[in-house]
Amino acid sequence: MIRFGLVATLLGFGFLILVGDVDAQTSADGVHIVTVRMVDKSATQYVFEPADITVAPGTLVRFELAGSIPHNVEFKSGPPGTDLGNATMGPFLLAKGQIYEIMIDARFAVGTHDYVCTPHEMMGMKGTITVLSGDPDSRRDRR
Ligand SMILES: [Cu+2]
Which CATH number covers residue 42? Predict the structure, then answer.
């Protein structure tokens, strides 16, 4: 049963890629999900894809390990008012397909947040999340 679920999930991702919508989807309960893949371009080049995203409050950002090298997400700087707490330094993803999700909520002030992969920052593995202003509840209420 678990194996079947994994296969179904993989097929789901495949379909998204086929239709060209790799970055955005909506969960069953209406939460907008944006996926950032951690990609091993070569033995010495690792990247977040896409590196720069712009999201509305209430978006779930999902980091997915797409290769075999462990990566994480560490926020380095953000606009005044940002208070990420435990989310400042995320856990390492170790196995291909593992995900780490961050809800863009009140912890994230409006503006651009810079993040890196801690061990690969010097290799240029970094990205940004730009948070738009807006009330997530009013967005979610849209019928
Ligand atoms: Cu990394």
Answer: 2.60.40.420
pLDDT tens-digit readout, 28-72: 888 999 999 999 999 999 999 999 999 999 999 999 999 999 999
pTM attached to this predicted model: 0.78
Q: Is 110 part of a structural domain of the chain?
A: yes
Does residue 35 lie within any of the structural domains?
yes
Distance in Å, CA 116 to ligand 1 centroid: 8
Tell me if 11 is assigned to some domain. Answer: no
Separation of CA 110 and ligand 1 centre (Å): 26
Q: What spacing in Å lies between the alpha carbon of 139 and ligand 1's midpoint? A: 33
Ligand 1: distance of its center to the CA of 42 in Å? Answer: 12
Specify the pLDDT at position 137: 53
Domain-located, residue 40: yes
The DSSP code sequence of the chain is -HHHHHHHHHHHHHHHHHTT--SEEE-TTS-EEEEEEEEEEETTEEEEESSEEEE-TTPEEEEEE-SSS-B--EEEE--TT---GGGGBPPPB-STT-EEEEE-STTS-SEEEEEE-GGGGGGT-EEEEEEPP--HHHHHH--
- Encode pLDDT of 115-140 as tens digits: 999 999 999 999 999 999 976 454 55
Domain that holds residue 90: 24-138
Ligand 1 (single-atom ion) residues, CB below 5 Å: 46, 71, 117, 120, 125
